[in-house]
Specification:
This is Retrotransposon gag domain-containing protein. This protein has about 240 residues and is mainly α. The protein has 9 helices and no strands.
């Protein structure tokens, strides 16, 4: 009887071991299947490791592209100004007949006046208004960038000297923009045009997060790398110069 009991106990133990081995084999097979399914992701994980460096490179390239566009725009502006100067050199007789009369608004055609104001002697000799172009106004309620760009176009077409630009532009400020400039003159005096444009942008321009540069800084990849690259380049080339 004792021998039969030991035999039954041994058989039970063997059956349990076989069951455990079967379960273990099933788990090993399942693990192998999962590993095979994850194998294609290994190469993708390696690609993702280098993604931050690629993004940094793309951002640097975008900013470099924006700088190159700015340089190109400046070169074109200088070329246009040089061409305007080559096509319009006033003679000695004409130079004495194109100055503004005392008290008159600047940048108006006065071709028959016989003298020049003494204060204009240090002005740009190429300054010679050729057409009555409507100067844009700005009230401080919208993005000032389009207004500043139109001012730049006006100044190039009229060969406006640097010292006349801010005073003339300030005549076309209205509303809150005019009050702001009045306080600016009282506290710091009249700035040069480039500084004036920067101050207008700071005071009336959109917040950093609402501008293309701000959107670049906040851009996150939530889809494919190609989509992210397209968005980054679109924002970079939308950045105002």
């Amino acid at each position: 009887m004792a021998a039969d009991g030991e035999k039954n106990s041994l058989e039970t133990t063997v059956d349990e071991m076989l069951t455990n081995l079967t379960d273990l084999a099933a788990k090993v097979s399942e693990l192998a299947t999962q590993t095979a399914a994850l194998k294609p992701l290994i190469s993708l994980a390696k690609q993702l490791d280098g993604l931050p460096d690629k993004v940094t490179t793309l951002q640097a390239a975008a900013f470099e592209g924006a700088n190159q566009i700015a340089d190109l725009s400046l070169a074109v502006s200088r070329l246009e100004k040089a061409q305007c100067g080559d096509n319009d050199h006033p003679t000695d007789d004409a130079a004495g007949a194109t100055a503004s009369a005392p008290g008159s608004l600047p940048f108006r055609e006065t071709p028959h006046l016989p003298h020049r104001d003494a204060e204009d002697d240090d002005g740009d000799p190429r300054f010679h208004p050729r057409a009555r172009i409507e100067f844009p106004t700005f009230d401080g309620k919208e993005d000032p960038l389009p207004w500043l760009n139109r001012c730049e176009t006006f100044f190039r077409c009229q060969n406006t000297p640097e010292r006349r630009r801010v005073p003339y532009a300030s005549l076309h400020l209205t509303g809150s923009a005019q009050l702001w400039f009045y306080r600016l003159e009282l506290t710091t005096g009249t700035p040069l045009w480039r500084r004036f444009a920067q101050l207008v942008q700071q005071r009336f321009g959109p917040p950093m997060t609402d501008s293309p540069i701000g959107e670049i800084m906040l851009l996150r990849r939530d889809s494919t790398v190609d989509d992210y690259t397209d968005k980054l380049l679109a924002l970079a080339f939308a950045t105002p110069i």
